Amino acid sequence: MKKADLLAEYIFNRRIHLEHEIQQLQENIRYRSISSVDCLELIIARERLSMFIEVTRDITELLKLKKGIPP
Questions:
Q1: What rounded mean pLDDT belongs to the chain?
Q2: Cα Rg, the chain, nearest whole Å
């Protein structure tokens, strides 16, 4: 397996994990009374995903690895 394939697999799996975390936090807010901590956790999770997407986009551009990596 090439290093580029490993990187693409890591990026894909990590993004799925971060998106799942956001979904779980949204469900927590939806089905119970909302606290400020719940809102803060959701904000942090969304920012973490946003930052991950931005950094991986930069990495793939620097390494010219557009093929096989989701946008």
A1: 89
A2: 15
- Token pair for residue 5? 């394939």
pLDDT for 64 beyond 80: no
Q: How confident is the model over 24-40, as pLDDT tens digits?
A: 999 988 888 889 999 99
Give yes or no for a contact between 11 and 19, defined as CB atoms under 8 angstroms apart: no
pLDDT given for residue 61 in this prediction: 85
The first and second tokens of residue 32, run together, are 């119970």
Q: How far apart are CA 13 and CA 19, in angstroms?
A: 10
What DSSP line would sit under 10-61, residue for residue?
HHHHHHHHHHHHHHHHHHHHHTS---HHHHHHHHHHHHHHHHHHHHHHHHHH
Give the Cα separation of 27 and 54 in Å (integer).
25
